[in-house]
Structure formats: structure tokens, C-alpha cells
User: Fold this.
Amino acid sequence: MGKVIFDISMSLDGFITGANPRPEAGLGDGGERLHEWIFNNPSPPSREFVEGYKAFGANIFGRTGYDHSLMYWGADGPSGPARIPTVIVSHSVPENAPDGHVYTFVNSIEAA
Assistant:
């Protein structure tokens, strides 16, 4: 059986995006601050986490996260050049998936 790791950045008031998330600003207004602590941090523990991310077997995201992030991720997905398979839980397969993408679309968390 595989190991599941749940990882998410959240503000103290329970939000995972800034105010007003939308496709052209997937993390909302100022939402990048919620992730800078790990991705833009030169400390050894942060660098170790970011490098370790490349060893993950797959990512799982919801459709809203996909819709709001595709313009940043592109065909390579959230892991960039590591091209980790990314499962999107959605009621439908979007028509805008880029050619050669790493995404698999499923209709339930159980299928993911």
C-alpha cells in the first residue's frame, strides 16, 4: 500500500488563497504570501522539502485548483519539469487541457 502525504499552506484564519481567487489570479489577491515561506525560503529545511517534492508519486487537486492554476502550471503540472502525475477530481474533463499534459481526470476521491 502506498503512503499518502497531505500538505497545504493555510493562513491562521483558515484560508488557502488570498481574497478574490479567480482564473487570472489563482491564489487571489496577495495569496502568494501563503506559499513564499516554503518555496522562496533559502533555509536548508525549505530547500529539502522542495527537492523532496520531486520524489512524490502523484499530486491530487480539485477542479477549481486546476482551473485557477493551469495558466501557471501548463502541461508539466504543479511540479514543473519533474512532471509528477497529477490527478484532478472533477465532474467533467475540461476541453482546455494542454497537449502532452500530466493530468488524469477522475470523478471521485476514491478513484483518485
